[in-house]
Structure to design on (776 residues):
């Protein structure tokens, strides 16, 4: 056991650090660009120098780096918190691993490098109004017509659908078999005729998600990943990567800010951090974030041995998201009456805690609710049995449904 | 970076697991709980024969000269087995105190006996139901004579030697004093404890002969350092116990049927045990970092140790109480084994200072690292 860098790791860190120092975009460079332009500029610059998606094989636009090198790179890049990013995470974090595992070679060569360079953005079309936690209950249907499939239905909660070039899509190709067996998996051009995107306004006031409607959208059969009826299995590849990539909603930076806040604000004229109740809470949150960090390191060791990340990764989101919510709520309590003020000028940390408080309910749901995550841990890690399912073994079109 | 125990260390874990499965089944813990003995001394001597008590003692003092990573591995298995022995007192506290602050002469005199298990050591700090500080210490050591009274001394009734924290006039206000417990001026009164398989005693000293361990006036600094080190090892015992309690709960839930199906299929039970798994995983991961920091003498040991300790205390408490809850009424009976973890979890959680004390230490370490 050794948490220090080996000489080779230290050399890699130095190389990454030096490149970042010379190449991270300056404020002036980014000043006149919108967020998307900023993101694309930075991603392309990384790609051109071999610092994008560094774990991917070189032939697909990566660097062929090890898992440990990826972590070192992430640590170093995180030292520049103002760099734009995020718009590529679904494509690079979820679509790409699925393509790598299931796509034809020509498709990998065509799509992966442009995913890495940020030239093309992908979204994920899984959830539906009637298929959320019970994803396999989705109803969007695909019917074969010659060499093409015709898609009709509706997806929901699609992040970035309005600016995406491509999407990964799970649909029902056979309603006459039990639900998991009748699914197939495709990717499609989001500019295809019949695709219509509508933003969803969230309770935070932002609109990061969309509804996506499909009306007689045609997809070539060559864009199918896996066999017809194998869609659930392909989806699992995507979902395992999703759970690994959706973290705790910035719990790390929020903790540091909370610690600063507790040292700044006062309780009965003494710094809040001297209060025993405040200390107990800070200690507990530190234990969680530290535990998550080192659990991540341990998964990494498994990854370096060539093992795939297991369902134990589910704890990251399950611990991180509720913790970020509680920390934000507590930070506002520390501000007393000013906690209600969400104002860049007057709020500590420019309103970070208020913003987190309003964003985090979404994190506790996206990519599997807290409750689904707990089920995954109980069933796949601890080996406990599933709840009896009333739809088990029944053809999908005979499963009882509610009003939705 | 490498975040795993070595193959040799994993092999040691397997050996320790197999040994304790054979020599320390739950029936042995129950025998101590039901009987008059305050520890299973037969098991203690077998453990000593295995060399576990000698783990971190250098070879020149009769030890094996292994690292704290090996000791962490053994601690985890002892915790899993709820072993009724004075291991934590004698090894994590007395032996480590001697290694930390003892003179060569003191090490030569005591370490070989502690290594072989011939002598049992302990550490005496508490004087009653309050948080001990240098300012509220009442025990004094003057001219080689110790006076005062210590409470909740783990294994105080069977120990041969105690390291006692006494008041000192200068320096940090405390000194460590080494006292032989079979000498004159020592009165030992066994105290009933929450966990009958882990005995405690009140030690009262009346002009008891004592000798300083390390410089008087540095006793508090030594105590803090010792406790940071011990916290990591206690945490590994707690992690082992917490995992055993979760395993016990899961096994029972899989076999127990209600309303026509295993109770393990109800989400109310699954989510409870998933929560225990999460707490155990976080505690284990913090234990890894703590063990590494202890082993390498890393500068952030105080933070790493407190983090491991707080996580492990919370994990074991949760797993031990929810294990009883999962068992329902049977879990509350004397006949079932759930009680062992419930008792041990609480005992370990106060043994080297409460959750609150360690939360406080943790934030102090954070403040220092934030200022640095």
């Amino acid at each position: 056991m050794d948490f220090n860098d080996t000489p080779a790791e230290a050399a890699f860190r130095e190389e990454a650090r030096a490149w970042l120092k010379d190449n991270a975009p300056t404020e002036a460079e980014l000043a006149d660009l919108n967020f998307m332009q900023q993101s694309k500029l930075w991603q392309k610059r990384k790609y051109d120098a071999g610092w994008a998606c560094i774990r991917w094989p070189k032939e697909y636009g990566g660097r062929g780096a090890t898992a440990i090198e990826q972590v070192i790179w992430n640590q170093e890049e995180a030292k520049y918190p103002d760099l734009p990013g995020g718009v590529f995470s679904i494509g690079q974090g979820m679509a790409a691993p699925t393509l790598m595992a299931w796509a034809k070679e020509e498709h990998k060569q065509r799509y992966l490098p442009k995913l890495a360079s940020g030239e093309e953005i992908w979204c994920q079309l899984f959830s539906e109004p009637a298929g959320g936690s019970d994803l396999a209950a989705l109803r969007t249907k695909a019917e074969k017509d010659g060499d093409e499939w015709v898609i009709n239905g509706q997806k929901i909660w699609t992040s970035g659908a309005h600016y995406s070039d491509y999407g990964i899509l799970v649909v029902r190709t056979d309603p006459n078999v039990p639900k998991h067996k009748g699914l197939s998996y495709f990717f499609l051009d989001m500019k295809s005729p019949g695709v219509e995107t509508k933003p969803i306004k969230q309770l935070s006031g932002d609109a990061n998600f969309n509804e996506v409607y499909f009306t007689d959208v045609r997809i070539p059969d060559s864009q199918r990943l896996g066999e017809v009826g194998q869609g659930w299995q392909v989806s699992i590849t995507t979902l395992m990567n999703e759970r690994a990539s959706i973290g705790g909603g910035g719990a790390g930076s929020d903790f540091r800010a909370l610690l600063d806040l507790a040292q700044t604000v006062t309780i009965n004229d003494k710094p809040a951090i001297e209060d025993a109740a405040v200390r107990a809470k800070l200690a507990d949150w530190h234990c969680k974030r530290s535990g998550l960090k080192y659990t991540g390191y341990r998964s990494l060791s498994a990854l370096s041995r060539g093992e795939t990340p297991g369902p134990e990764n589910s704890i990251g989101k399950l611990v991180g998201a509720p913790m970020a919510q509680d920390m934000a709520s507590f930070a506002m309590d520390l501000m007393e009456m000013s906690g209600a003020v969400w104002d860049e000028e007057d709020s500590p940390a420019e309103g970070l805690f208020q913003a987190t408080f309003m964003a985090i309910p979404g994190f506790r749901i996206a990519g599997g609710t807290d409750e689904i995550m707990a089920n995954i841990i109980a069933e796949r890690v601890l080996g406990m049995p599933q709840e009896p399912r009333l739809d088990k073994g029944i053809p999908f079109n005979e499963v009882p449904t509610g009003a939705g | 970076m490498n975040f795993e125990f070595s193959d040799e260390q994993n092999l040691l874990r397997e050996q320790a697991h197999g040994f304790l499965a054979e020599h320390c089944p739950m029936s042995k813990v129950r025998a101590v709980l039901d009987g008059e003995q305050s520890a299973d001394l037969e098991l203690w001597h077998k453990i000593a024969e295995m060399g576990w008590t000698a783990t971190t003692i250098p070879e020149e003092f009769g030890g094996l000269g292994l690292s704290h990573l090996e000791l962490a591995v053994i601690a985890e298995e002892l915790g899993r087995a709820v072993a009724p022995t004075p291991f934590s007192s004698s090894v994590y506290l007395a032996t480590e105190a001697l290694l930390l602050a003892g003179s060569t002469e003191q090490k030569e005199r005591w370490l070989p006996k502690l290594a072989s298990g011939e002598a049992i050591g302990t550490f005496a700090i508490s004087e009653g139901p309050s948080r001990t500080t240098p300012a509220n210490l009442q025990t004094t050591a003057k001219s080689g004579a110790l006076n005062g009274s210590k409470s909740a001394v783990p294994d105080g009734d069977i120990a041969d030697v105690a390291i006692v924290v006494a008041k000192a006039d200068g320096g940090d206000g405390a000194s460590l004093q080494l006292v032989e417990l079979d000498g004159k001026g020592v009165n030992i009164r066994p105290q009933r404890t929450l966990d009958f398989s882990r005995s405690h005693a009140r030690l009262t000293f009346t002009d008891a002969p004592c000798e300083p361990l390390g410089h008087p006036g540095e006793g508090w600094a030594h105590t803090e350092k010792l406790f940071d080190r011990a916290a990591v090892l206690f945490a590994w015992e707690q992690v082992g116990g917490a995992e055993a309690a979760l395993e016990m709960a899961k096994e029972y839930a899989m076999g127990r049927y209600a309303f026509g199906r295993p109770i393990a299929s109800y989400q109310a039970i699954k989510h409870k045990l998933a929560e225990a798994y999460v707490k155990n995983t976080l505690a284990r991961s913090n234990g890894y970092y703590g063990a590494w920091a202890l082993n390498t003498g890393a500068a952030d040991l105080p933070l790493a140790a407190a983090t491991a300790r707080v996580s492990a205390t919370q994990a074991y408490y949760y797993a031990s109480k929810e294990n009883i809850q999962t068992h329902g009424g049977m879990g509350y009976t004397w006949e079932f084994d759930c009680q062992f973890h419930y008792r041990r979890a609480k005992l370990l959680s106060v043994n080297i200072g409460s959750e609150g004390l360690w939360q406080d230490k943790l934030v102090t370490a954070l403040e220092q690292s934030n200022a640095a």
Q: What stands out?
A: Chain A touches chain B through 51 residues (CB under 8 Å).
